[in-house]
Amino acid sequence: MLTQIINGKIFTPHGWVNNGSIVMENSKIRDILNSDDPVDGVDKIIDARGAYVLPGAIDIHVHGGGGRDFMETTEDAFLEAIAAHRSHGTTAIAPTLSSSTNKMIDDAATTCDKLMADPNNGIIGLHLEGPYFNPKKAGAQMPEIIRAINPDEYKDLVERHSSIRRWDAAPELEGSEEFARYLRSKGVVVSLAHTAATPDDVDRAAHAGFSHATHFYNAMTQYHKEGMYSKAGTVEGVYDHPEMTVEVISDGIHVPVRTIRLAHRVKGVENMAFITDALAVAASDSTKAFDQRVRIENGVCVLADGSAIAGSIATMDRVIKVAVTEAGLPLEDVARMVSETPAKIMGVYDRKGSLERGKDADIILMDGDLNLTGVIQMGREIEIA
After folding, report:
1. I need a labelling partner for 88 at 20 to 30 A (CA). Which of 284, 357, 361, 384 fits?
2. Is the pTM higher than 0.70?
3. pLDDT above 70 coverage of the chain, percent
């Protein structure tokens, strides 16, 4: 089936194409044209009505949505959460587990192995956020599940589950360098998180294979005082490695907009991605998270005792809007940081992350006020929320 999108401002790796069109053949982009005249044999025309036509958003850190959490580990939970975020512009996703038991990881990975076989589900890999973290930086992670790095555990899981594509850990823990070297040898992205790593720890981590920083600024140390003396923290250690990528929660709450601008200025578009870090309550009327300690307060998830911010209730359309209208970043940069950069981090840029001939037809449309007006995933029109 041939579908043509006309009358939009199309964002491509080479810049904007005005008065052009995108031709999709089934699930792929067949061509991007400088004309919006109907092509021969077109079956359907979609009028963008002057909207921005952008690559579909890729969320590489998201715990759930639509009232469902990936820690439920079932196919129904996965598919419902994915569908909820898809209706808000997420066309590819890395389902994320917070620190979990070995059985929970095994069950979720089994589900993910199966669902990844269908490209229409949009899953680009399972993301394990823990459980190998610094207990002092647990944040909203369940403290009773955080544990020491166990080679027998992680090697067994990775050998049996091809869907595990990213794993986060605190690099100051014993065994972290072996952990990173092993995972990198298997093509798994290794990210530092929930950590009190010093810049020297970050140096060793980067050398061993840690290439990414999870929810940058959150649950990690920054410049601080120890007694009389000032010390650099994890954040400064990451900044000192220009090649290390970062992800930032752009909900306007987890990270101040001035800090978002700073990270963008230092890291640049190529090394910074935006994420939601959304919990099950995102894109739903639910007020209950999978973790019963979590409640909603002022538009964000927090622990009931007030000790930490938990995940967000954001969706990717909101992430884009906050980054542009509140942080003041150029739409071109934001479009890349929710599509191109995460695709490159997860190793799927050969087929996703930009509007180019031969890539998956994952596309979103946003009006001049950055309201979502259309979602196309693998060539299929998706009903928006």
Report:
1. 357
2. yes
3. 94
Q: For residues 31 and 236, give the distance between their C-alpha atoms in angstroms, rounded to a whole number.
A: 43
Between 3.20.20.140, 3.40.50.1110, 3.30.365.10, 3.40.50.300, what CATH number should domain 56-345 receive?
3.20.20.140
Q: How many CB atoms lie within 10 A of CB 85?
A: 27
Q: Enumerate long-range contacts of 355-359, CB under 8 Å, 24 or more apart.
A: 355/10, 355/11, 355/12, 355/13, 355/22, 355/29, 355/32, 355/53, 355/54, 355/55, 356/12, 356/13, 356/29, 356/32, 357/29, 357/30, 357/31, 357/32, 358/28, 358/29, 359/28, 359/29
Task: Please compute the mean of the pLDDT values over residues 84-89 and round it to a whole number.
Answer: 98
Fold of domain 2-53+359-382: Urease, subunit C; domain 1 (2.30.40)
- Per-residue pLDDT, averaged over 219-243, amounts to 92
- Whole-angstrom distance, CA of residue 122 vs CA of residue 377: 8
Mean pLDDT over each residue of the chain, to the nearest integer: 94
